From TrEMBL:
The lineage of its organism: Bacteria, Bacillati, Actinomycetota, Actinomycetes, Pseudonocardiales. Residues 21-36, 79-90 have a biased composition (Low complexity). Residues 1-98 are annotated as: Disordered. It comes from Actinomycetospora chlora. Residues 37-59, 66-77 have a biased composition (Pro residues). The keyword Glycosyltransferase does not apply. Keywords: Membrane, Transmembrane, Transmembrane helix. This is Uncharacterized protein. The keyword Cell membrane does not apply. The chain crosses the membrane at residues 120-139, 145-163, 175-200, 206-227.
Length: 240
């Protein structure tokens, strides 16, 4: 016995399938064949699937504009996450490494006054260490050894600053200027002490006198070359 048909020809959920080709349909049967629509929320979430560039080509003889070729293995998951989120950042050179060392290139066009000041500072440092060693040699006690150690540490710091000065570091020029001024003041005081020392210990007096004169003369020339017009133009505006 067939199901009864509604009198108006429309579909009724109680009677089953639509009648006389009607477009309406009962909710228990679903949409007609050929007009199936997935319900809302059905299917994979957005962004699901392989990243762009993976998978087979879209047509014969077509070249994919981006991504690895078909069949290539994608990078590991951790590299995808961290590479996309943080990027591939390359560390710059260490600012403590003086230019000319450790792969840090020297700046181009170093002016002659800057190069002269650099060599004068190296000469002053070497003379100061030599003077400390000569004046303390033969004493043989603990205090003299400590003095030599401190002289070597100070020389290492001075060379470090001089190398950065030649590398166009404004902060190195400022620090060297302050330290040179203090050392020249100390050498001026030591100069008068050396004159007195000549009467009691001529050898040490002569060494101290020579070191003081070299430091005063060399420091003055180094500061003049480091702060003349050509050097100021090369270093640029005063700052770190």
């Amino acid at each position: 016995m067939s199901a009864p048909t509604p009198p108006d020809g429309r579909s009724d959920p109680r009677y089953g399938a639509p009648h006389h080709g009607g477009q309406q349909y009962g909710p228990q049967y679903g949409p007609p064949s050929g007009q199936q629509q997935p319900p809302p929320g059905y299917g994979p979430p957005p962004g699901y699937g392989p990243p762009p560039g993976y998978g087979p080509p879209t047509g014969p003889g077509q070249q994919r504009p981006y991504g690895p070729p078909y069949g290539a293995q994608p990078p590991p998951f951790s590299q995808q996450i961290y590479g996309q989120q943080y990027g591939q950042q390359q560390a710059g050179p260490n600012p403590l490494i003086p230019p000319g060392f450790g792969g840090v290139p020297l700046p181009a066009g170093i002016p002659a006054p800057v190069e002269r000041a650099f060599r004068l500072w190296l000469g002053i440092i070497a003379v100061n260490v030599l003077g400390v060693v000569v004046t303390t040699i033969g004493v043989g006690d603990y205090v003299s050894g400590v003095g030599i150690v401190f002289a070597l540490i100070g020389a290492a710091i001075g060379v470090f600053l001089a190398l950065h000065f030649r590398g166009q570091r404004q902060w190195a020029r400022l620090v060297l200027t302050v330290l040179t001024g203090l050392a020249m003041l100390s050498s001026l005081i030591a100069l008068f002490g050396a004159l007195v020392l000549l009467a009691f210990a001529p050898v040490y007096g002569v060494v101290q006198l020579a070191v003081s004169v070299v430091f005063l003369a060399g420091g003055t020339l180094a500061l003049i070359n480091a702060w003349n017009a050509q050097s100021n133009a090369w270093f640029g505006k005063l700052g770190l």
